[in-house]
Amino acid sequence: MQSETTTPTTDSLEEQLQLNSTTVDEQEQCEQQGDSARKRKRGKTKMLSVHGRCERKLIIVNENNQPIGPTKDVVAELGSFLVTLARNASLCPLDIFDWRKMDTKEDLWAYTKEKYDIPDTAKKWTLDAIQAAWRRQKSNLKEHHFDAYANDEIRMQKRSEYIPASQFKDLLKYWNSEKFQRMSKTNIENRKQLKNSHTVGKKSFAIVRNELVEKRRTLLTRYHYESSLWLQDQENLEGHRRILMKIQLVKLLKWKKLKHNKVKMAAALLMHLQPFWDLNIQGDLDYMDEGLQELL
């Protein structure tokens, strides 16, 4: 049976988040080591600067309503902030086993809007991100606080401080059920079939896609610019070719009167040599002169 959860008010939400949503649990990180061998490690992300500020940061979204700006750092900060909401036992209780039954979604969205100037169209993405972080949170808890110990008595003793005892008891009961054991076995087998995992760290796929689009746009702009220069050069070269052809025809007319068929042959010779003029113009002119002399 799920325990009853209360929805926090807006006034107490910020204070509650700062106190219990990101408590550093060194025991969770070092519990398998002896007291003499314990090392101080970096704790969980707290994002106290975000929870404590009053101004709202602007969030820019793409056509799929996914955050992409104004900078990568702001988007990464938003993602870390949403993780802290998912770890909060009041906003995202662990004794609710189906995200569709979570009744605090509007509170999550309202609090996110207090800290970020984010479009309403990004609401679905925001809640999906919190849901994914909430699922990862429960997965980590199961690995380090359920699978790591033999019985529930030890598990309760090793419970993380930021997890309410009542919620953790319900969670242990759920994990011990036959229904969950069957589902867990199926999920493990499905997970083994995953070939391409997320390997870009805090950078979202939306950011990666946006960077690729910007890079492609830059390359296309450069390509169009260079193409315009090339076309301009070709137009200039074509004009130069026409002038050279006129000069050679004038030479032809000055040398000697030719029959009509020989004039046509000389013109054909000029047209045949035209594609090679840009390679060696002076050499082609000498060759044309030799060819014209043979016709005369």
Spatial ordering of strands, largest sheet: 1-4
**Percentage of residues assigned to helices:** 55-70%
- Rg over CA atoms, rounded to whole Å, is 37 Å
Largest beta-sheet details: 2 strands, parallel
Low-confidence stretches: 1-7, 21-37, 276-285
Which H/E pattern describes the elements? HHHEEEHHEHHHHHHH
Amino-to-carboxy terminus distance: 110 Å
Quaternary state of this entry equals single chain
Strand content: under 5%
Query: What is the β-strand count?
Result: 4
Would you tell me the overall average pLDDT? 75
**Structural class estimated from helices and strands:** mainly alpha
- Shape designation: elongated
- Annotation field: number of helices: 12
List the helices and strands and how they pair.
Blueprint: H1 10-20, H2 26-30, H3 48-52, E1 57-58, E2 60-61, E3 67-69, H4 72-86, H5 105-115, E4 116-117, H6 123-145, H7 152-157, H8 165-176, H9 178-192, H10 205-255, H11 260-273, H12 281-295
Parallel strand pairs: 1-4
Antiparallel strand pairs: 2-3
Keywords for this structure?
single chain, 296 residues, mainly alpha, two-stranded parallel sheet, two-stranded antiparallel sheet, 12 helices, 62% helix, elongated, disordered N terminus
Produce a short descriptive summary.
This protein has 296 residues and is mostly helical. It contains twelve helices and four strands, in the order αααβββααβααααααα. The strands form two sheets. It has a two-stranded parallel ribbon with strand order 1-4. Strands 2-3 form a two-stranded antiparallel sheet.
